[in-house]
Amino acid sequence: MKANSTVTLIKILVLLCLSVLCVSQEFDFFYFVQQWPGSYCDTKQSCCYPTTGKPAADFGIHGLWPNYQDGKYPQNCDSKNPFNPDKIADLRSSMQKNWPTLACPSGNGVGFWTHEWEKHGTCSESVLDQHGYFQAALGLQKQVNLLQALTSAGINPDGRSYSLSNIRSAIQETVGFTPWIECNTDTSGNSQLYQIYLCVDTTGKNLIECPVFPRGKCGSEIEFPSF
């Protein structure tokens, strides 16, 4: 009888561990990705402004993406936890300003945020619930302030080309960590500053050096288009 009771207790503990108590960290770090709207709209035929109007000429949030040390990443981790706009009602105005969508049809941004939460955010739900996920990204953007870091170094969104190494150094000197720069190419074949990646620890709050960078390559001189 005692043996049966022990087995039953073990089974209960295992089930609790799997469901609540022993939730493990299922990723190694985040990529915090910000996008320059001038590059997106200069190279995309389908660039649309949100219903709130043209976004500010500033780096907008693209996402906070859980990642593994080997460069791979989890996605669509919990279909039972869909995006719920009511959970971020107090963040809505900040998100419309700092996390705008330029993809058509852009609408009010909910479609973009839904995609980011369900594809990426659900893979960090062991440490960040839906509100915490978006709040963490907004806090990181404020902390980093990429545009100020660049303009303070004389690198301005004026359509001119700047040294990739100078762009990287300007950001690194300001935030204290090495960024990864993603470029795209406009219709004239110019390499443009498109997205900037910084790495964040698993709390979603602290910048770290990136364990691994994404694949891709920019030219030694890249354009910083106006918006």
Automatic annotation (TrEMBL):
Coiled-coil stretches: none
InterPro entries assigned to the protein according to its UniProt record, in alphabetical order: Ribonuclease_T2_eukaryotic, RNase_T2-like, RNase_T2-like_sf, RNase_T2_His_AS_1, RNase_T2_His_AS_2
MF terms in GO: hydrolase activity; ribonuclease T2 activity; RNA binding
Range of residues in the leader sequence: 1-24
Active site as annotated: 62, 116, 120
GO biological process, one term: RNA catabolic process
Any one of the GO CC terms: extracellular region
SUPFAM superfamilies from the UniProt entry: Ribonuclease Rh-like
Keyword check for Signal: yes
Keywords: Disulfide bond, Endonuclease, Hydrolase, Lyase, Nuclease, Signal
Job description of the protein: May remobilize phosphate, particularly when cells senesce or when phosphate becomes limiting.
Family: Belongs to the RNase T2 family.
Name of the molecule in the record: Uncharacterized protein
Organism of this sequence: Salix purpurea
